[in-house]
Amino acid sequence: MSIAVPKESHAERPVPAATGGRRLWRWEILLLLVVAAVFGFNAWASPYFLDPWTLSDLTFNFTEKAIVALPMALLIIAREIDISVAGIIALASVVMGLVAGAGFGTGAIVAAGCLTGLAAGAVNGALVTTFRVPAIVATIGTMSLFRGVAYAVLGDQALRDYPDSFAFFGQGYAWGLISFEMVVFAVLAMLTGVVLHVTVIGRRIKAIGSNPTAAFFSGIRVDRYRFWLFALVGLASGIASILLTSRLGSTRPSIAVGWELEIITMVILGGVSILGGVGSIAGVVLAALLIGLVTFGLGLLNVPGIVMSIVTGGLLIGVIALPILARRLTARGERP
Fold first, then answer.
1. 111 CB contacts (<8 Å, ≥6 apart)?
2. pLDDT digit string (tens) for 102-141?
3. pLDDT per residue over 73-95, tens digit each?
4. Rounded Cα distance, 248 and 165, in Å
5. What is the rounded distance in angstroms from the CA atom of residue 33 to the CA atom of residue 88?
6. Radius of gyration of the chain (CA)
7. Which residues, at least 6 apart from 113, have a Cβ–Cβ distance to it below 8 Å?
8. What's the sign of the alpha-carbon dihedral 28, 32, 37, 42?
């Protein structure tokens, strides 16, 4: 078994360890302040933003991506990454469309979406843990594979033969203005937070990300954890595909194009170190809300979608580059 030996310390991570008075300036606190500032700006810039139904619609802007970001955070903490999540969403949507077209009911359609996502995630996990393909290479390959299969099956066509009851998953409300999607996201966020921060599984995931060699020799089954984390990301992508397909009411092979960038940005912006070993689910939830507020606010102001992509890419580059730049400037200032 080959285990990658860590090459770096935690010094370049975006979330410094919080001690003493610096605890007040934890990454999550800073994110919360930025969320409040963006919320206030949106309320000032658009007279429609504070309408209750507008705020409810806002949740649809980030919940599906955030559902995938939760297990993606665990995967990145374990020092791996999955670039193929948008391709998995497209493949699962196509499979669901074919199942619906064959006359099956909502239960079978939902099961098809979940199982397709789980199987695609398992493929990624097997490539990384069994065939020793680097995660970024393996998932870039499967990203093209899954999306390519979707295009090969549908071409430029769309599938729309979904039963009426299927629409509830992406368009229904659980209570008042609270959407079913929001409830699913909240439940999954709490479960993921408990697993990461309370259970021995979370401690082992952090140990794997901090030092996989030490984790292996301390008895942790590193590859088994990594495999199931990839499978979990695939399952979450399948769930996101169910919600998105239900909300749109149709399947196209171009569904969810570019989502992998926003999902990974949510995770990194949430304070999860791209180098592994560090991160919190609270940060990921706040980052998802922040990106949702930014893109939704820009949408209310009729800003073109390409500008939103520029903003998202800028956030991703900035959150990775700025801590490294700050560390280097600090080190330069401490030299005699």
1. none
2. 999 999 999 999 999 999 999 999 999 999 999 999 999 9
3. 999 999 999 999 999 999 999 99
4. 14
5. 34
6. 20
7. 92, 93, 95, 96, 238, 239, 241, 242, 245
8. positive
- Check if the beta carbon of residue 287 is closer than 8 Å to that of residue 267: yes
The amino acid at residue 313 is: G
| C-beta atoms surrounding 61 within 10 Å | 19
The token duo for 150 is 């979707």
Q: Which residues pair with 173 in a beta bridge?
A: 179
Positive or negative, the CA dihedral 198, 82, 17, 34 is negative
Structure tokens at 162: 């979904």
Residues facing residue 175 across a β-bridge: 178
HEC secondary structure over 238-259: HHHHHHHHHHHCCECCCCCCCH
Residues in the chain: 336
Between CA 245 and CA 170 the distance in angstroms is: 7
CB 106 within 8 A of CB 163: yes
